[in-house]
UniProtKB/TrEMBL annotation:
Keyword GTP-binding among UniProt keywords: no
Signal peptide: none
Entries under InterPro entries matching the protein: Flagellum_FlbT
Organism this protein belongs to: Nitrospirillum amazonense
GO biological processes: bacterial-type flagellum organization; mRNA catabolic process; negative regulation of bacterial-type flagellum assembly
Protein name (record): Flagellar protein FlbT
GO terms, molecular function: mRNA 5'-UTR binding
Keywords, ordered alphabetically: Bacterial flagellum biogenesis, Cell projection, Cilium, Flagellum, Repressor, RNA-binding
Length: 150
């Protein structure tokens, strides 16, 4: 049974390292063999890696999309993972699971797990700003009386 992806107009997709752009109409793609793919909304750019969780996601993304460079990126992955463990010792179980998934080659699942890490952190940090009090002022306009003709 093939994998079916439905993409929206203007959406981008990376398939085995190639960037594919979608035109003006929705598209259904069917993959009949194993491919490494990421949808545009799942891709993290290097300049947006401002936290250790995002750096971890990014290096796993590189391992996943570019398997030919996996050995080099695995060294970087180990270093970033250790840094993440030092910064967040309370999430050791999660990092162990990510490490196991990457070692087994299940990089897409590892990406999903890392995504949850920084999505949860961002929503917790992004508390809504207090709204200023609303002041309701009612003013009555004086309407000129209609002129009476004599």
């Amino acid at each position: 049974m093939p994998l079916k992806l439905v993409l929206r107009p203007g959406e981008k997709l990376i398939v085995n390292g190639a960037v594919i752009g979608i035109g003006d109409h929705p598209v259904s793609l069917f993959f009949y063999n194993k491919v490494n793919f990421l949808r545009g909304r799942e891709i993290l750019k290097e300049e947006n890696c401002d936290t250790i969780e995002k750096r971890l996601y990014f290096i796993i993304q590189l391992i996943y999309i570019f398997p030919e460079d996996a050995s080099t990126n695995m060294v970087h992955f180990a270093a970033i993972l250790e840094e993440a463990r030092v910064q967040h010792p309370d999430k050791a179980d999660l990092f162990d699971e990510v490490q196991t998934l990457v070692r087994e080659g299940n990089n897409y699942r590892a990406l999903k797990l890392c995504r949850k890490l920084f999505d949860i952190k961002e929503t917790a940090e992004a508390a809504p700003a207090p709204k200023p009090p609303v002041e309701v002022v009612r003013r009555r306009r004086k309407v000129a009386a209609p002129a009476v003709e004599e």
